[in-house]
Amino acid sequence: MSTTHPPPNAPVLLSFANTDALVESLAEFVTKAQREAIDKKGKFTIALSGGSLPKLLRGLIGNTAVRWKNWHVYYVDERVVPLDDPDSNHRSCTEHLFSKVDIPREQIYTIDPNLLDDLDELADSYEKELIREFAQKDAARFPVFDLILLGMGPDGHTASLFPGHELLSEGDRWVAYLEDSPKPPPKRITFTYPVINHASRIAFVAAGAEKAETLRQILDHPETGLPAARVKPVFPGQLFWFSDDAATALVSYPKTPFKL
Hints:
about 260 residues, alpha/beta, Rossmann fold, six-stranded parallel beta sheet, 5 helices, 9 strands, 6-phosphogluconolactonase
């Protein structure tokens, strides 16, 4: 009798008893990815989302294994607002993480606040930031981040890629804009799937009972096509889900014990 094995880049589901356990293990995971990247090429390229994610990175604060001087941080998506606006992902990440650690500020790559009135130019400007970092160093057509950390909304959106939106089919641009986000604020820029899916590691962080039904659809029925289910890393990239037991309560997809 033959046995069907999941593909080598199939999602790895990690479920923790509570948020504190998730935060601790997520910090270990990030520091391992960081260590391997720095040992290989002297720097760590990471892209972050907003939402609840910055708060769940608190395990990195005061962590002596983190080599902040080697971090280069980008944003998976950003709201088109001033950097100090309450809706800004950069502001959230700064308040919850960067203001509490010794990371060089010039290695945190924000949108250009002088281009907020021109979405096309704003997205193009941020794409050029990626080109400066990646285009001359990687043979791939798209940038290869060491790690991309994503959140997931109750509607299954991730980054600023929403159900039914035309950007779900964008296959050429690295960074795209939208001005009709169903979740305010309406104007945003976002990485496209090709950029996300070319990362060496991608990790969703989704906790709480309000995520349970959506997570069930994404992992048990990915054919439904929710935006988060469309994150499928290009081999040899790896995809992980860091969740708590409340979020995975309805999921049949097999859970994997956490280990480094």
